[in-house]
Design goal:
256 residues, alpha+beta, Creatine Amidinohydrolase, four-stranded antiparallel beta sheet, binds magnesium ion
Length: 256
């Protein structure tokens, strides 16, 4: 179901989004070669709890029999890992790594969802371009996130932009409405036909999230039941914000 948020609900939702953004400000400063992805996770969880909020991904059910709920605050996906990587004390971040982080914070009954990809230390040209294009794809897409357009216009622009740079979007996962639930309607694929899908209306809050692979458009799921990797081992990047649809330009709630 699509939920249109009232002014009051939007005000309540801002706080979870703001905390998510704050966490990324800290993580960007703290991330370095030699630390484990679990250390990053601990930093994020501490900030969230200090703000009286809850890490919403922790304990999130897998929906698959035999696969335990997600055990951590952050999804941390390194290099060829695309999304849903599980933080671990055994995963040590190396110089030049492409580290995609996804975080949903919950406060006041609402969720704030965002993802960032950081390159640790000196970036290769290839990695930098992939990360830049992935981020830009979000901003290309949200040019259509306003009344008068449809969800397919956002999807189409993201896919077109990514492919015009020789990359591929992940087709098996998509952006989504967000609010009291982490995942609400509509689904927002990162590819599609312009002019199709649901009409965009003020009061919608949407998590728009290009997931981009430098190589072929095929993914695999690891045996842990969560981690998604590129089949060909190519690098992947992820960029996401929660936005509010207004009468005019969208407002990005998870940027400070
Ligand atoms: Mg997310």
């Amino acid at each position: 179901m699509v939920t249109i948020k009232s002014k009051k609900e939007v005000e309540q939702m801002r706080e979870a989004c703001r905390i998510t953004a704050l966490v990324y400000e800290v993580l960007e400063k703290e991330i370095h070669a030699g630390m484990s992805t679990l250390e990053l996770d601990k930093i994020a969880e501490q900030i969230i709890r200090e703000h009286g909020a809850v890490p919403a991904q922790k304990g999130y059910p897998s929906g698959i029999k035999g696969v335990p709920p997600f055990p951590a605050t952050l999804c941390v996906s390194v290099n060829d890992e695309v999304i849903h990587g599980i933080p671990s004390k055994r995963t040590i971040i190396q110089e030049g790594d492409v580290v995609s982080i996804d975080l949903v914070t919950f406060k006041n009954g609402f969720h704030g969802d965002a993802a960032r990809t950081f390159i640790v230390g000196k970036a290769s040209k290839e990695a930098q371009k992939l990360v830049d294009i992935t981020k830009q794809a979000f901003f290309e897409g949200i040019q259509f996130a306003k009344p008068g357009f449809r969800i397919g216009d956002i999807s189409h622009r993201i896919g077109e932009f990514v492919e015009s740079h020789g990359y591929n979007v992940v087709r098996e996962f998509q952006g989504h409405g967000i609010g009291r639930q982490m995942h609400e309607d509509p689904g927002i694929p990162n590819y599609g036909k312009a002019g199709r899908g649901m009409r965009i209306e003020p009061g919608m809050t949407l998590a728009i999230e290009p997931m981009v692979m430098a190589g072929k458009p095929n993914i695999l799921e690891l045996d842990d039941g969560w981690t998604i990797v590129t089949e060909d081992g190519s690098l992947a990047a992820h960029y996401e914000n929660t936005i509010l649809i207004t009468e005019n330009e969208p407002e990005v709630l998870t940027l400070l």
